[in-house]
Amino acid sequence: MISFENVGMRYGMGNEILTDISFSLERSSFHFLVGPSGAGKTTLLKLLYLAHRPSRGLVNFFGKDLATLERSALPRIRRRIGVVFQDFRLFEHLTAFENVALPLRLQGAKKNQVADHVEELMSWVGLEDRMHARPATLSGGEKQRVAIARAIINKPDLLVADEPTGNVDAEMSKRLMHLFVALNKEGTTTVVATHDESIVKSVGAPVLRLEKGHIHLQPGGKPIDPGF
Amino acid sequence: MWGRTLQFLPAKSLREGLLPWVIGVMLFLCTLSLTGALAIGKGLANWSDSLTSNFSVQIVVKDPSERARQTASVIKLLKATPGISNANVLAEAEILALLSPWLGDMPIGSDLPIPTLIEVKLADGAPIDLAALGERLHATASGAQIDDHQAWMTQVLDLAGVMQMLLMGVVFMVVLSTVAIVIFGCRAGLATHHESIEIMHLMGAEDKTISKAFDQRYLAHGLKGGLFGVILAAGVLWLLADLAVKMGQGLISSSMPDPENLLWLALLPLSAAVLTMVTARITVRKALLEMM
Is A71 in Cβ contact with B199 (below 8 Å)? Predict the structure, then answer.
């Protein structure tokens, strides 16, 4: 579904941050992306959620070669990708409901459809009673669940999460990981970047390990946590 | 909640708060300059009309009886000329009144030869060849000279024309400055909302969706500033008009713009709003193209 072949990435005239990155993500797969700070995790994620084009190499999204893709075609592809950030990046002046509704409104969904979908999803992430709260009044875990709801409201083919558990406690981390695994079981290809090895072990999914700009694929093991 | 525009920007932004006021000041200057240019245009038209619809003929002859004879001949010829509606000899008292700014109350003896002045009015729209008329007058009366005010009027018209050009130049510069201010304001807005724009992009928002949110906001800024500037300028113009009326008839009062011209000024806030919106749209679209 998504493939990277000999991808290199540098900013401006600087050194290459990613070198000869090659991997592919099959439909409904789950991968962790791990690596030390400065290894290029964020850069690779930016390539995965189409915030940047690579400096070199071939990147294929849903059968389309990124190098030959017109800029005007990018929004259509981006709508198939959901993104969750460590710092949530919610619109502070909008309510939780309005934040989650944004991707649907972007696609011109009708008001009643928007309301139905958002209410259903807010209930799924356990925030049915916080729908009209503004982000400033939500806890870290609640904000991240709103961000997850916003990322998946369009039923994306690919979900990319950048350190989604970085700003929440251990209990909430586990709860969020359950949400990601549940989404993956429903068919969403998922990539979760984390530096928390205990989460990786507890889920037991394959790992894309980045070290000094190079990537290595490690097969998944048996989940330690039977809940996964 | 958002209408047809997906408004993802917060309702208030500190950095943009001053923009309507700055646009307002620009519109104030623009309105005053434009009104000045229109008023000069109107003054010029009025002057030209009044000065080209009449001229005077002087009979410069020392001998009083010869002067009277030539005056009678000139009056006869003028009244017989097509396009001339009236030819009237000014009384000596009127001529002395015209001379009084230079001579004061000094008694003028009968030995001082004062030329006869004939005021000639043209029929409305009647074309008349003053050069040919001058030759005919001279053939009839050797002391007859035509004064069509052209010599001094040309200089005044030139000066007024330069003033009008200058004021239009000020309008042009104010418009350019407004565009520059909107561009800077818009760039500041883009920097402030950079993260929100990036999130919208990542959610699959097209450039036009994002720029529409700015369009709506800058249209409101332009309209607000435009109304403020034009209302303030209208107040100042009203005061000037009132002062001009109190000063009596003269150059200023005859140059105040017509109500129709003032109606055109009412369109300025709308023009400011559209200019601001279009400038913002171009700036935002250009900035978005730099993003992936």
Answer: no
For residue B174, the model assigns a pLDDT of: 93
Kindly identify which residue of chain A lies nearest to residue B199, measuring between CA atoms.
A89
* Gap from A223 CA to chain B (nearest CA, Å): 32
Angle between helix axes B150-192 and B194-202 (nearest 10 degrees) is 60
Cβ pair B292:A51 closer than 8 A = yes
Q: Which residues of A touch B289 (CB under 8 A)?
A: 71
Closest chain A residue to B11, measured at CA? A93
Residue with tokens 């001998």: B63
Torsion of CA B245, B251, B256, B261, to 10 degrees: 160
Contacts of residue A30, defined as CB under 8 A and 6 or more positions apart, other chains included, come to A180, A181, A184, A189, A190, A192, A203, A205, A206
Please work out, in degrees rounded to the nearest 5, the angle formed at the alpha carbon of residue B257 by the alpha carbons of B251 and B260: 155
Residue type, B247: M
For residue B207, the distance in angstroms to the closest alpha carbon of chain A comes to 9
Higher pLDDT, B156 or A163: A163
Residues of A whose CB is below 8 A from B199 = 89, 91
Over residues A67-114, the pLDDT tens digits come to 888 999 999 999 999 999 989 999 999 999 999 999 999 988 999 999
Q: Where are the domains of chain A?
A: 91-155
Q: Name the token pair of B283.
A: 């700036």
CB A92 within 8 A of CB A71: no
- Locate B93 and state its tokens: 């008292």
For residue B36, give the H/E element and its range: helix B19-52
Kindly report the pTM of this predicted structure.
0.73
B14 pLDDT more than 60: no
Residue with tokens 């530096």: A195
Distance between CA atoms of residues B1 and A188, nearest Å: 31
Among B1, B195, B204, beta carbon nearest to A89:
B195
Task: Report residue A107 as tokens.
Answer: 């696609």
